[in-house]
Amino acid sequence: MEYLLLNTLNGLSWGMLLFLISVGLTTVFGVLGVLNFAHGSLFMLGAYLCMQAMQYFDSFWLGLLVGPLCAVVVGVLMEKFLLKQVYGRDVSFQLLLTFAVLLILDDGVRMIWGSGYHVVDPPVLLSGVMSVAGQDYPVYRLFLILVGPLIGALLWSFFHFTRWGKTIRAASFDNIMAEGVGINVPLIYTAVFALGTWLAALGGALAAPQQSLVPSMGEKIIIESFIVVVVGGLGSFPGAFAGALLLGLLESFGTEFAGRMQMAIPYLLLAVILLVRPHGLFKKGV
Amino acid sequence: MGKRFLFIIVTISVVFLSGIWAHAASTAKIGFTYIMSGPFSAYGQFAKQGAEMAIAEINAAGGINGMKVEGFFEDSTGKADVALRAIRKLVYQDKVDMLIGLDSSGVAKTVVPAIEKMKTPLIITHAATPDVTGSVCNKYTFRISLNLAQNVKAAALLAKETGAKKWTTVGPDYAFGHQSWEYFEKYLKELNPEATFLPKNKVAFPPFKTTDFSSYITKVMSSKPDGVFISLWGGNLIDFVRQASDMGFFNGDFQVLMSLGGAIEVLTALGDKMPEGLWVGSRYWFQANDSAINKKFVASYLKKYGAYPSYNAHGAYSAVYAYKAAAEKAKSLDKEGIAKALEGLKIEIPTGLVEIRKGDHQAITDAHWGKTSAAAGFSHRILKPIKIFKGADITPSIAETGCSM
């Protein structure tokens, strides 16, 4: 019984982190039509910049605020000077370009912060353990479980209730018509990419007190995020949420029950979904 | 006009040829292959630092057999096929006299059989699988560092002392993790027939790319063992220790042994988050040896790079010196001569006196274990007390290694 609870919590906390990364990836794809391979590197950048800001301000919360915002600057430059060139072109151009950005960012991080491991402390408020139904569980992990849905709800409300959100959705449905009715589509694209970058970087900053910082740390998470996004349906918001939860839980319970097969679970899930529902669990639409 | 033209040709030829001739005659070329990119690039970085320090020292002291040493560095990226390509480039294109390197057991098992065809001696400094100086050994392959069997034998000796009976493991899900557990089981069973080991489906082998270990931690804790043998290393170990501490893994419900927890890069990254009082091993520990050569190595490294040397820096540093000793013994850089000279070579390196055994080319070297302790003047844990297991006591016999050359 206690394993059931612990594994559920393990799966939820990992799944929520995965959700933050995937939702950025899926939003960028939904609006810009770009599959951003460098998304994991932006996650890494968020973690490193959070660490840097933490050292500067001596506060995790300020690091969490400032780090991802600095990453957004990189994201905006990337969109303005690089991604712009490949909009509407064959997907192979996008993959090559974003893969190049991934390599540059990975090496850039190595040059600035070195190739060694870095460790970031969780804030005092969130360290230690808390009792959940009689089981001690790390407070920071519970915090992650809460933060995921919170960010998700905020994003959802933004897209559905604000003018900006509605404009972005309009631009993603038909950018030519949107342009025709006077919407500044290039600006929208930049803003959406900035949002996607912010989500990836925020995920990195939130992961920092959990996992060591090391160049190329985005490699693992980008693969799982791609799986989440495909499982949930490319461009689908609730899809990313459901996909991330599903993958997180499957992985944590898989460790207990699947033995060495655990490693294959994400790919099996992907294969099953592609066979049964090739468009993912949820239909396309931001 | 004709004379002048001839003069230019002759001058150019002389300059050019003497340049080539001088180059060929005055350098000993060593090719290094390590992980230089990706999440484990720190290991390549350390090795490069150790190697460059040794090369600089040797060159300042007159070189090898009067020749300057030159290092060529290639990135294995941790992948076997890339490593093999890098080594081929070093041998056939850069025409190196000697090879040093290899971080991963998986890489080593692919490269070692190919070395025989390239007829170039290789000293392995990190990859720890017993197979490369065992079932797949050959006349050109040597290892200067502590191997998995030696380190795990020491772990088993300690495990016996703890008195814990029911053992489980957490190790990376590839050759290294699985072999570590197999050897631990084999050795501890011999030492303590009462010891029991959890079956494969109850132990934890997280994939190499795991960053969230929570479900593995829950799995191991819920199996209620008396002792846990951990063979995770690098970033995997750092992530595991932090997450496991949060989840109460180190609350003293069971004994914990970490075969590579004494690696300086792990201890420095974890700082005071490494729990105290755990037995940890390492392939080199900077305080384990009082010799002059070790003190000099640690002091120069600290001065040059601002950090204590890691086992990988030590391995690469020592391998360069082993090459020097072999070249002096052979009185040439001839590859066959070097391979012969490395056999049975006895050399003092910072970790102590080692002998590269003739029968399997494995260095007979001591294993260092210690208990993690806080100490004044260090921002990270150090090993205290230190326990030294003599190379002769922990190295399997040649018959056991399965090596036949």
Automatic annotation (TrEMBL), chain A:
Keyword rRNA-binding: no
One GO CC annotation: plasma membrane
Keywords from the UniProt entry: Amino-acid transport, Cell membrane, Membrane, Transmembrane, Transmembrane helix, Transport
Pfam families in UniProt: BPD_transp_2
GO molecular function, one term: transmembrane transporter activity
GO biological-process terms attached to the record: amino acid transport
TM spans (from-to): 12-39, 59-83, 95-119, 139-159, 180-201, 221-250, 257-276
Membrane topology term: Multi-pass membrane protein
Compartments it resides in: Cell membrane
CDD domains for this protein: TM_PBP1_LivH_like
Family of the protein in this entry: Belongs to the binding-protein-dependent transport system permease family. LivHM subfamily.
Protein name per Swiss-Prot or TrEMBL: Branched-chain amino acid ABC transporter permease
Species of origin: Geothermobacter hydrogeniphilus
Automatic annotation (TrEMBL), chain B:
Any matching Pfam family: Peripla_BP_6
A Gene Ontology BP annotation from the UniProt entry: amino acid transport
Residues in coiled coil: none
Keyword field: Amino-acid transport, Signal, Transport
Gene3D superfamilies tied to this protein: 3.40.50.2300
InterPro entries: BCAA_transport, Leu-bd, Leu_Ile_Val-bd, Peripla_BP_I
Domain Leucine-binding protein: 28-367
Transport found in the keyword field: yes
Keyword ATP-binding: no
Family, similarity comment: Belongs to the leucine-binding protein family.
Protein name, as recorded: ABC transporter substrate-binding protein
Species annotation: Geothermobacter hydrogeniphilus
Top-level taxonomy: Bacteria, Pseudomonadati, Thermodesulfobacteriota, Desulfuromonadia, Desulfuromonadales
